[in-house]
Automatic annotation (TrEMBL):
STAS domain location: 1-113
UniProt-listed PANTHER family: RSBT ANTAGONIST PROTEIN RSBS (PTHR33745:SF1), RSBT ANTAGONIST PROTEIN RSBS-RELATED (PTHR33745)
Name the record gives this protein: STAS domain-containing protein
UniProt organism field: Keguizhuia sedimenti
Matches recorded under InterPro entries: Bact_StressResp_Reg, STAS_dom, STAS_dom_sf
One Pfam family per UniProt: STAS
Amino acid sequence: MERIPILRVGELLLVTIQVDMHDRLVMRLQDDLTESIVANRSKGVLIDISALDIVDSFIGRMINNTAAMARVLDAQTVVVGMQPAVAITLVELGLSLQGVQTALNVEKGMALLAKRTSRK
């Protein structure tokens, strides 16, 4: 079964989505991510979506739900690499990504997470 890799970088987890997401893959990612947060006592999750050219309401909900799960487990979430067309689509779909910080790239996202998690 296909999996999206979750890399540990100190207290943070890095997820890079480079494939088309389908229901089973999303559910597997959410399970794997929540297990990784608990197992590693991670304080932050960075989700890189720079490889996604388009999104639909399903992907938007997936990002929202994943961030909500991370929050319940005391981890901050930052989404990076959002293409302009993706941002426009999310706004047009009415998806605000509540509780999700965004950054332009992985470097800026990691810096934001480091700053946010060091305050805890």
